[in-house]
Amino acid sequence: MTTTDSPPDAKPGRLKPPTRRRNHGDTERGFSRVFRWITTGSGAFLLLVLAAVAVFLIARGLPALTASPEELSGKGGLPTGMNSLWDLVGPLVFGTLLAAAMALLLATPVAIGIALFISHYAPRRAASVIGYVIDLLAAIPSVVFGLWGGRTLAPIISDVWVWIAGVLDFLPFWTVNVTNTGRSLATASVVLAVMVLPIITAVSREVFLQTPTLHEEAALALGATRWEMIRTAVLPFGRSGVISAAMLGLGRALGETMAVLMILSPGILYSFQIFDSGQQQTIAAFIASRFAEASGLAVNVLIATGLALFVITMVVNMGARAIVARRKEFSGAN
Amino acid sequence: MSATTSITDDAGAVERTRALLTSADTGRRRTDRAMTVLIYGAFTLAVIPLVSLLWTVVVNGIERFNGDFLFTSMRGVFGGMDMGGAYHAAVGTLMITLTATVISVPIGLLVAIYLVEYGRGALARATTFFVDVMTGIPSIVAGLFAFALFTIFLGPGAKLGIIAAVALSVLMIPVVVRSCEEMLKLVPNELREASYALGVPKWLTIVRVVLRTSVAGITTGVLLSIARVIGETAPILITAGVSDSINFNPFDGRMMTLPVYIFSQYRQGPVPCREDALDCLVGINFDRAWAAALLLIIIVMLLNLIGRLVTRWFSPKLR
């Protein structure tokens, strides 16, 4: 971040650590040195924890990866008809990605709208209150979202799904099945969308607020309306920020357990019937629903599916963070 | 130039030019107005679920939300009995969250100090990056990790509060690091330099000057991170299990927490009552779930509120 304002002669600073070490030797005596070791050690410990998460998941998931099909369908607790781990993980990954993608599709436009509302439309005094209200949405525990989604939202929204399915009925090659209970992936995705809304809003808002005022004023001076100013100055500036915000939201939606577990009536299929029940399931909800009864190899199977989830979310999150980090270095804002 | 002077000469021309400039592009203005409506609409759309959720939780939860509910456990409660409460879950939540806080705050604070005061080179860059990545670990994966770690020593089927606390710590540490780091960065360098100039060693400067200055912000960060993990369900469900009894000891036996309580009550669903049963309530499980949800939301909101007030009241006035 601060690489730009370091003096030019500090550039080959990596080449001359000896002077720095001597400085430390001069000023750091007694407990100061111990304190530096302690803090540095805790930084390293944090990396160790993350590595340990990966190592333990791999170590405990490995028996499931190497087990024979007979063992898996017997002791491994695979659903009937499945004889390899991929038969289980494949549809679960599919369901997870489908649910998260739909949630993102619903949440991102709304989140951008709210972020613009806070950064460029709302009066300044109101903006902070609105920001607080959106943060409130982030503070609500996921299990309460699940309770609300299962008891309140699902019965109401099922009418909407029935209506949409009726409208889509003209499609010749695809029959849209719909459940009356509302316990479908579509409902779960709506709740997921509400849950990822705050994080996408928060990051986008920060980026939009960083838009150079000169760009905005230049656009307005050329006669642009407010929307044209946003389209020509704010959105291009914030594009990479919005992308990374959406990816952070995706990471959250992928790993969300309770909302899906409490709303969705699960099945393990490759299915695009998002309005029907008993079709898809996500990895996280699958683990939570099976873990209590699992033992022996079945636990290893569940941990292996958890490993798949871990890898997917890590890739998404690291991608998002890399974009954010790149943006910080190359944007003209600082 | 000449055009402007001629316009200012003629009042009618001014009017005409103004009209031209303001109304010529009806299409553009219409787009602008449509987008304004859309953006206000987006905000309204986000408020609807928030209001609906808070409203249903309060309305459905307030009925059972009384002293009886708060101070009885579910021990010996079955069927549609008009009894039972969330005391054991509240105790479990308190103990597990407290243990997680005791683990996370020192580590998180030390990492934040490292990043702000000492952080140079590859290790610091890696730590910063992976702290961000860790905030994205799915909560259930953290639960699986803690389970995998502890069952090596304790054997399969171990369900303890401390395992849940470790799982929560994995989720909590990055949040604590992030917020403490922000707060430590806010401490002006002049304070550190003044302290060094007086010959105070670096560690004492950090403890007595930097931490002292940012204590309000750090408290806020810790409270908000507690508020974040107190509502976690999935990792606790698979590490501390489900229990009907009061358990204060995180090192011995299963523990219930409020989120898991909500989930297990929800999962039990409506009670199949006999026609002639007088003391059997069909929706008792859902009622308990709503009441516990209300309690949980009150706790989370209080933590958020106190966190924000601490900053407002106790932060040093820097300017």
UniProtKB/TrEMBL annotation, chain A:
Per the record, the gene is pstC
Annotated ranges, domain ABC transmembrane type-1: 93-320
User: PROSITE patterns from the xrefs?
Assistant: ABC_TM1 (PS50928)
Q: Which family does it belong to?
A: Belongs to the binding-protein-dependent transport system permease family. CysTW subfamily.
- Its job: Part of the binding-protein-dependent transport system for phosphate; probably responsible for the translocation of the substrate across the membrane.
Name the segments for region: Disordered.
1-26
Where does the record say this protein resides? Cell membrane
How does the protein associate with the membrane?
Multi-pass membrane protein
Q: Which UniProt keywords apply?
A: Cell membrane, Membrane, Phosphate transport, Transmembrane, Transmembrane helix, Transport
Compositionally skewed regions (Basic residues) per UniProt: 13-23
Q: Which InterPro entries match?
A: MetI-like, MetI-like_sf, Phosphate_PstC, Phosphate_Transport_Permease
Name the record gives this protein: Phosphate transport system permease protein
Q: Its domain of life? A: Bacteria
What PANTHER family does the annotation carry? PHOSPHATE TRANSPORT SYSTEM PERMEASE PROTEIN PST, PHOSPHATE TRANSPORT SYSTEM PERMEASE PROTEIN PSTC
* Record field: transmembrane: 37-59, 92-117, 129-148, 160-178, 185-204, 257-275, 295-318
